[in-house]
Amino acid sequence: MGTEVQADMNNGPVQETQTSGDIGGAPVIDLTGIEGPSRERIMREVSAACEEWGFFQVVNHGVDLAVMKRAKDASKEFFASPDEEKLKFAMKKNVHFHGYFNPDLMDKDVSKFSSTYEHLYYVFYPPLQEHKDRWPTIPEGFGPAMYEYVVESRGLVERILGLLSESLGVESHALFNGLKGPDVTQSNMNISFYNAKKEGEGEDQIALLGHTDPGAVTVVYSDEVVGLQVQKGDRWLDIEPTPNSLIVNLGDQLQIMSNGRFISGNHRVVEKSSKRRLSIINFYSPNMDAIIGPLDGLLSESNPPVYKSTPYRVYLDTFRQRARAQLLDTISSFKVLSLSDQEPSSESTIGTASTSSTIGT
Length: 361
What we know:
GO molecular function, one term: oxidoreductase activity
Oligomer: single chain
Structural class: alpha+beta
Protein name: Fe2OG dioxygenase domain-containing protein
Keywords: Iron, Metal-binding, Oxidoreductase
Order of helices and strands: HEHEHHEEHHHEEEEEEHEEEEH
Helix content: 25-40%
Region (Disordered): 1-27
Shape: globular
CATH class: Mainly Beta
Pfam families: 2OG-FeII_Oxy, DIOX_N
CATH topology: Jelly Rolls
CATH architecture: Sandwich
Number of strands: 14
Strand content: 15-25%
Strand order of the largest sheet: 1-2-10-7-12-5-4-3
């Protein structure tokens, strides 16, 4: 996903009635037989989830459970380390936000952030030496464990991209080829940790305001603690993690490439538990120089392009600029406008933005 921008988290208690349902807030899809006789069924289910939700969970997904456990164990061990050790890997402005972030420890305006939130943000793919040099070294083996998980979860994303391409009626590698552009796609990791709320500490709080991801596909490996919510219509629904599952949500680029058939899932995080919560997030993003637009095979006189074709680098820069200006909706600014259309005069906001952090889940 490239580097994202953190929204203001101090949004007060949750006001909406929380509604559960739809299998814990998003469809749960069993990927058993994805390369066999179940492929058509899985393709229909995944496509429907991407059209209606932009979110789904997958089980029997083919990502090695032992690899997932090593990534989770390494993440937990890092966050359990003494503050002085974690701060050795603190973010620096000149390295594009990579590193450890904790507003309580880093002289930030803590009113803008959840009081329980800290995270790590790194590029793990491609594993260039400049990336490896920044990976944490505590615990020992942290970088290799996370890289191993990234490779596995990237494989899952690329299997899903194949399904989605086929469901659109184009060649199975069409979405992947469009995202990789002149080189390779990128995976950025945001490992988010929410310390436990104290019993009786107050009402549920919005820890991360509603947003869509500007990249292509996001894979979330969450523990059993509920906190992530997805928007469905005018409701915010809890996503209740299924054991050994992974949560998948589409970003803006797949909404663009599908010419609006798939949707970028709007989501937020709510603090509601006296338990600690860990979330390992793989942002699968286009190559920065990839030109992203509606796939040619989808366009016709009756289905003209809804979105402009734009280098991902330009889209991401626009996303950051709009976040700083408190504007939520980036994708609408890349729509193809007819002569009768006008740019909306007012837009939703994401609160006061900070350029020192990343959007997480």
